[in-house]
Amino acid sequence: MMAAMRAVPTLFHLLPCLALCLSSTAAAQASAPTGQAAWPPQVAAALQASGLPAEAFSLLVWPVDGEAPRWQHQATAPRLMASVMKLFTTGAALRSLGPAYTWRTEAGLGGPLLPNGALDGPLHLRGSGDPSLVIERVQLMMSRWRGAGLRDIRGNLLTDRSAFELPPHDPAAFDGQVLKPYNAGADALLLNHGAVTLRLLPDAAQPGQVRASLEPALDGVELVNSLSPKTKLPCGDWREALNLTMAPILGWHHLGRQRWRVTVQGPYPLGCGEREWPLLWRGDGPDDHGARLLSQAWQDGGGRLEGVVRNGSWPAGLPVWQTWTSPPLATVVRDINKFSNNVMARQLFLTLGAGNASRDVSRDATEPPRPATLASARAATTQLVLEATRGGNGSGHGRPSACEGEALQLDNGAGLSRSERSTALCLGQWLQALWRSPVMPEFVASLPVNGTDGTTRRWQAAAGRAHIKTGSLDGVASMAGYVDTADGGTRVIVVGVVNHPRADAGRPVLQALIDWAQRPNTVTAPTALTVP
Q: What is the pLDDT of residues 175-194, one digit of tens each?
């Protein structure tokens, strides 16, 4: 009796607490997005810690062999995806062109090649959009010219860029950062990504001094080193302390272009050791970088050029003399996705829009290939995605595509755009179609491995078990890819994106989603937990 009497006040005192808990739960449910109250616990905790609203996120977890996502939040909302959009470009290229596809850069003799190595006329060079013609490959291509007997070009070096038909590109248009290499535009004869690298390192020949060089060297461009070496200055953000200018100077170069001067000045901490500063070359116009690079590289290899480097059409009927073949597409796609290379993605996107992209057509064919345009690239890539995402087994039949209409809007194929967007559901369905595709091994291998390489080498979420592509713009943070569950029992697709002025604060939410996705219980519904 006494025990019962003691229990009554105990229960009575618990009632206010119970009422408070119920009211708190009701308030949390009221604040959660309608129909999306069940959140994985660790993802909900990361969301609460971020201070961002749930409405800023689109999240998706989908087993690769599942008919429907296991968990999603606002997965049908179109979002800016930043560089994650490269997954559409690279996946479409692998499916359409095949992993072994290559680009060809062709040279033709515009006159007789004499026994003494002199070409009595111009040399023609025609590009097809190769994204990988970095300086080392240009030098090797030229060494093959010399190996075939060419030493002295007595005419001009004429470059044909007609494979792409593009509007003028303004590198300042996106964010005003005209020296950032990611703002380079596409070019049918893109050389070294349109960029140079300022290399700084302590001078072994003159201790206490700093050596500076531009790589690759550009004809008619001089570098002025006005650095002040510092022995006690910490390395820190060494670039912020330096002042770099690029400006034309009086006097014309034999190329028919202005001379340019690059000046770097300011304190350089010797403790930094060797550092690189990639720079987009501005110069005198869109073809200025390529003209200067070709002229200098040819001379550095011992060749002579009596004319100039300028644009010129490939003459009808001119046979190909030498052909440089790019690395296979599977290799190029790895460079694009692992390191999120924007201009390479632009090149690949336009290749999808070329009239001859899907077949190996001889340049001597009577019907010239159609030039690629942004419109043709957008149409071709969109069609490839829609065809692949229709049908639950990747056959193109069965279910409607989640990428119809506003769910997928392409611009330049690189994600460096404020109009290019997708929904998480569309991207998830595309990743599922790629998983079921014959090119799945090449595609998955192109993605960064968390904690290992590429843009996710510092990510610890599912380290070594997740192939994840990331994206970042002002106001955008995103990730998408495949996660292997910890027991090795299944693989799941994860897509996460946040669009918010403080998007960077949402990255822990995206990583928490990956961590949750790797747990074996992700094949079942998440715990019923309301969004904080």
A: 999 999 999 999 999 999 99
pLDDT in tens, 412-443: 999 999 999 999 999 999 999 999 999 999 99
User: Which residue in 202, 168, 188, 190 sits closest to 281, CA to CA?
Assistant: 190
Main-chain phi, psi angles of 114, to 5 degrees: -85, 160
Confidence of residue 67 (pLDDT cuts 50, 70, 90): confident
Distance of alpha carbon 60 from alpha carbon 521, whole angstroms: 15
Contacts of 210 (CB under 8 A, 6+ apart): 200, 201, 202, 203, 225, 227, 229, 268, 270
State both tokens at 463.
């380290």
The three-state secondary structure class of 361 is coil
Rounded CA-CA distance 337/431 in Å is 14
How much is the average pLDDT of 391-409?
77
**Phi then psi dihedrals of residue 235, to 5 deg:** -65, -60
Partnered with residue 265 across adjacent β-strands are: 226, 243
Share in percent of the chain as helix, strand, coil (round to 5)? 35, 25, 45
AA letter at 221: V
Kindly list the structural domains of the chain, giving each domain's residue range(s) and its CATH number in brackets, ordered by start: 36-99+371-523 (3.40.710.10), 104-325 (3.50.80.20)
Q: Which residues of 353-375 are buried (b: 16+ CB within 10 A; e: fewer)?
A: bbbbbeeeeebeeeeebebbbbe
* Backbone torsions φ then ψ of 147, nearest 5 degrees: -65, -25
Between 357 and 95, the higher pLDDT residue: 95
Query: What are the C-alpha distances in Å from 452 to residues 73, 89, 132, 244, 466?
Result: 29, 24, 24, 34, 10
The number of CA neighbours under 13 Å toward the Cβ of 263 is 9
Neighbours of 275 (CB within 10 A): 15
Which pLDDT score, from 0 to 100, does residue 255 have?
75
Which residues pair with residue 484 across a beta bridge?
491
Distance separating alpha carbons of residues 394 and 80, to the nearest angstrom: 26
- Does the pLDDT value for residue 12 go beyond 70? no
- Residue 77 CA to residue 99 CA, distance in Å, equals 32
Strand 118-119 and strand 152-153: pairing?
parallel
Which DSSP letter does residue 189 get?
A: T
Pair of tokens at residue 232? 């006690």
Q: Which stretch of DSSP H or E encloses residue 27? A: helix 2-31
